[in-house]
Amino acid sequence: MTQLPSEDRESAFKHFAPLVAGLPEDALEPWHYDAEILRVNTQRAFDALAPFLQATAKKMGHIDIAEIRELPRLGLALAFADTRVFVAASAQEIKTYQARQRPKRKLAIQQLVVLNEMGLLRDSSKVEAIIPGKGAVDEAQDGVACVAVFHDNAAALAGKHPFDDAWLAGLAEDSNWLLDQLKISGAKVDKQPKSAEALVRDQLFTEIVRRYGQGRKVAVEHWGWKRVDEHYPSLFARVVAPP
Question: How far apart are CA 60 and CA 207, in angstroms?
Fold first, then answer.
């Protein structure tokens, strides 16, 4: 029997996140997995045990059967939690964004300098503040600042520059993305505390590992140690075994 989850991923997350919030950070399982693979395997594990879980009382020794029945929902919660965790882009991705943002930034600055010299901007100091500085982070900040100046002077600059709303929005989007990704010079990744989003994901993962282990004990009771791997999938299995 296959369990059809009664909740979507976000609802499952909202249900389980408070339940695992008390798990201390130093007791959490290290995370370096694919959440979707784990989600699929929690469902496979439940499917394998479902006939026995239906006929089993609420407790089997010290094992809480209800916890095992919740494995698919817990897998949904983990998959949702993982999407909330910020993942640093690759160097190549950053280069791709920079190659698109830098020419726009240059044109925007040049245009603002001209408009400023023509006396069309309300506050010339904002343009003057953009020009100094160097480095990747400064370039990204420049893009955001340039768009802000154009927006602040929209009425006065209407029809006096070649950039439409879509062009400015693209510069702002790329610049903000780069700011999120780039590390300020001297910052070290290993000094960064774990984010709240990563913490709750790891708490959910740790709870899945515990419950999955309980499920395996039930599987051993029915198939024995020698045959358990034929029926109860590994939590980390990347290849779905044939039926």
Answer: 19
Over residues 107-157, the pLDDT tens digits come to: 999 999 999 999 999 888 889 889 877 889 999 999 999 999 999 999 999
Buried b / exposed e along 195-219 (16+ C-beta atoms within 10 A): eeebbbbbbbbbbbeebbebbbebb
Q: What is the pLDDT of residues 180-220, one digit of tens each?
A: 888 654 444 444 567 899 999 999 999 999 999 999 999 99
Q: How many CB atoms lie within 10 A of CB 231?
A: 13
Q: Which residues contact 119 (CB under 8 A, 6 or more apart)?
A: none
Q: Which tokens hold the place of 165?
A: 């709303």
Give the confidence band of 241 by pLDDT, cuts at 50, 70, 90: very low
Q: What is the DSSP letter of 165?
A: H
Q: Give me the phi and psi of 109, to 5 degrees please.
A: -65, -45
From CA 64, how far away is CA 52, in angstroms rounded? Answer: 13
Quote the strand ranges of the chain, DSSP E: 59-60, 63-64
- CB-CB contact of 75 with 36 (8 Å): no
